[in-house]
Design goal:
Blueprint lengths: L2 E6 L9 H11 L14 H10 L6 H12 L1 H8 L4 E5 L5 H10 L3 E5 L3 H14 L4 E6 L17 E5 L9 H13 L6 E7 L4 H7 L6 H17 L8 E8 L4 E8 L3 E5 L2 E5 L4 E8 L3 H11 L2 E7 L5 E7 L1
Parallel strand pairs: 1-4, 2-3, 2-5, 3-4, 5-6
Antiparallel strand pairs: 6-13, 7-8, 8-11, 9-10, 12-13
Helix pairs in contact: 2-9, 7-10
């Protein structure tokens, strides 16, 4: 078993991370307050999201799995030789677990903002694949993506499953794809999951389930903010809201104040009126032709896409 020590800029966007604190405070003070969805993923948030993926309403995980299972050999042929499999937003590493025997990379590099959650997942995975060098990175890859020299450079396959590309605005998604492209040398590529446009009647329940697990996931953000910036959010003063913004083709998650209140933190405060919202996540839904055009513009080529029978989701591969 060979697991490199986890490299992390901060174990959980700790209070010593001045840039994270500044980003949160600036977001809270905007005219329409907004917090990046990356802050949803503290250790508890990561576990809650893992539970969300098991819910009957949450179609992306099982639909993506069915696509990979059905087209596994075709995907492997399209991808070709892989030296380093770089798993962005790895979480519990479960999705990569299905790819490792298929692609047989020399190195597996899970990347996630929640280093502690990543550590737990990697210990178990390394027992199953002791011949693979595993080098985990606990970093925030949403704004920069610079890999250490310990990561092999040739034949890198970036793996970005789920519908996480939808958390970026289309412009930010383009910039993110360009950053990935810049980290690919000869033989590199990207394997990515894309949630496709579908009726709101399917989309909204996936982000507002009957058991309230997604609500707990969203509300847990407030506890995380309390730790990060010394705030006094009371989760009971807020409720989870999910809606489909049709003109922008995106699901939105918000936290809505149940009453007039004032929230304070170490270096500031803000008043919230009853009904005022904090925007916590967007999930853009794409048409496949639209996403293909983005990949081409970002510098990728030869994109192939595999979809389910309902065309709800796509798994795409492109090379450089």
């Amino acid at each position: 078993m060979n697991i490199a020590a986890i490299e992390s800029s901060s174990p959980e966007f700790g209070v010593d991370d001045a840039s994270a604190i500044a980003e949160i405070c600036a977001g809270l003070l905007q005219d329409i307050p907004e917090i990046s969805p990356k802050f949803l993923y503290d250790p508890l948030g990561s576990k809650l999201f893992e539970a969300i993926t098991q819910l009957p309403e949450y179609y992306p995980t099982r639909t993506e799995k069915s696509i990979v299972d059905r087209h596994a050999q075709d995907i492997a042929r399209a991808v070709g030789s892989v030296t380093a499999l770089i798993d962005l937003g790895a979480g519990n590493c479960e999705k990569a677990r299905r790819l490792l025997p298929l692609l047989n990379p020399a190195q597996y590099v899970p990347v996630d903002v929640s280093a502690e959650f990543l550590r737990e997942a990697l210990v178990e995975l390394s027992r199953e694949f002791p011949h693979i060098d595993m080098h985990a990175l606990g970093i925030d890859f949403s704004s920069s993506l610079s890999l250490p020299r310990t990561i092999q450079a040739d034949n890198r396959l970036f793996f970005y499953p789920g519908s996480s590309i939808g958390n970026f605005t289309p412009q930010a998604a383009m910039e993110f794809l360009i950053r990935i492209r810049s980290q690919c040398d000869a033989g590199g590529g990207l394997l990515i999951g894309v949630d496709l446009v579908k009726p709101a009647s399917v989309l909204v329940p996936a982000y507002d389930d009957a058991l309230g697990v997604t609500a707990a996931f969203n509300l847990n953000l407030l506890n995380h903010l309390n730790r990060l910036i010394g705030a006094n959010f009371a989760p009971g003063d807020w409720r989870h809201v999910a809606l489909f913004n049709a003109p922008l083709s995106r699901i939105e998650m918000h936290l809505e104040a149940r009453r007039d209140l004032v929230v304070s933190w170490t270096d500031g405060e803000r008043s919230f009126r009853a009904g005022e919202r904090i925007h916590t996540e967007s999930s853009y839904k794409y048409e496949l032709l639209q996403f293909r055009a983005m990949m081409v513009k970002a510098g990728f080529r030869n994109m192939r896409a595999w979809t389910d029978e309902r065309h709800w989701f796509a798994v795409c591969h492109a090379s450089i």
